[in-house]
Amino acid sequence: MGAGMARRAARGGHDVVVWNRTEQVATDLAAEPENDGRTTVAEPLERLVELVKPPRHALISVPSGPATDAMIEQLAGILAPGDVIIDAGNSRFHDSRRHAAELKERGLDWLDIGVSGGIWGLEVGFCAMIGGRRDVFERFEPVIRTLAPEDGYLYCGDAGAGHYVKMVHNGIEYGIMQAYGEGFDILHASDYDLDLAAVARMWNNGSVIRSWLLELAANAFERGGNELEGITGWVADSGEGRWTVAEAIDHDVPAPVITLSLIQRFRSRRTPDSYADRVLAALRNEFGGHTIKERK
């Protein structure tokens, strides 16, 4: 998604400086003619301070945890007071609060952006949930407005708020996907010879369960047939569902659907290849490009 955001920002008229641990990835991105010459490579990363006028806004999109911590520390070592570090990955909101406090002591500002849109964001826009100081958000808002679809971004509050809202968003996503998986499992097991792609397409026209996920389900069925050929029902979880359940427990909020959806993903990795799990694995691949385990 980081590459998609860089492309969308450049194609929206913003000057973008990119860096990737694999230099060729950044070089190839900068060379794309669609970016209209607005993308420059910082290599080594320290060149960022030469190529961008202060106050600089450095947006990172890497896996949560140690990778994010290391990237923030590397940037903090080269940026100047008043510059902003923006975490657009799926970090836990506790970490975002900590990062904001630590960077404040070094004179650096902070934004956390929970981003939804997956590999389709370049085309349709990235839904953005933002946390941090409002004045810092307002300074960066023109870029966010370019990245997001119309009405597709929101300033949520202080540091961590953006990642908190994204965390719950992903917990809800777990429940919706589980319901679709179970529903298509029942249809698949029925005595009728149903075209599941056609069912999904039909439901997406006027029914109360229409959604983008259902559209992606239809795509998956059209590609893999009713049996979702080549897909094993092994379903990963990337953290946000766990964090949502933990937060529900901390606040005494009953969240049985999200909790059971998470537990079902654990089960899928012990006894894989139920049909419902195949649907979930296919959906994760469709919207996020997440790896699937192929069936032998």
Please name the defining characteristics of this protein.
296 residues; five-stranded mixed sheet; alpha/beta
Characterization of this structure:
The chain has 13 helices and seven strands. The protein is of the alpha/beta class. It is globular, with a radius of gyration of 21 Å. The model has no long low-confidence stretch (mean pLDDT 95).
Summarize the structure.
The protein is of the alpha/beta class and 296 residues long. The protein has helices at 2-11, 23-31, 48-51, 66-76, 93-105, 121-124, 134-147, 161-189, 196-203, 212-224, 240-250, 256-268, 275-288; strands at 16-18, 39-41, 57-60, 84-87, 109-116, 127-132, 153-157.
Chain oligomer state? single chain
N- and C-termini, Cα separation? 30 Å
Uncertain spans: none
Q: What percent of residues adopt helix (DSSP H or I)?
A: 40-55%
Please give the structural blueprint.
Blueprint: H1 2-11, E1 16-18, H2 23-31, E2 39-41, H3 48-51, E3 57-60, H4 66-76, E4 84-87, H5 93-105, E5 109-116, H6 121-124, E6 127-132, H7 134-147, E7 153-157, H8 161-189, H9 196-203, H10 212-224, H11 240-250, H12 256-268, H13 275-288
Parallel strand pairs: 1-2, 3-4, 4-5, 6-7
Antiparallel strand pairs: 5-6
Helix pairs in contact: 8-11, 8-12, 8-13, 9-10, 10-13
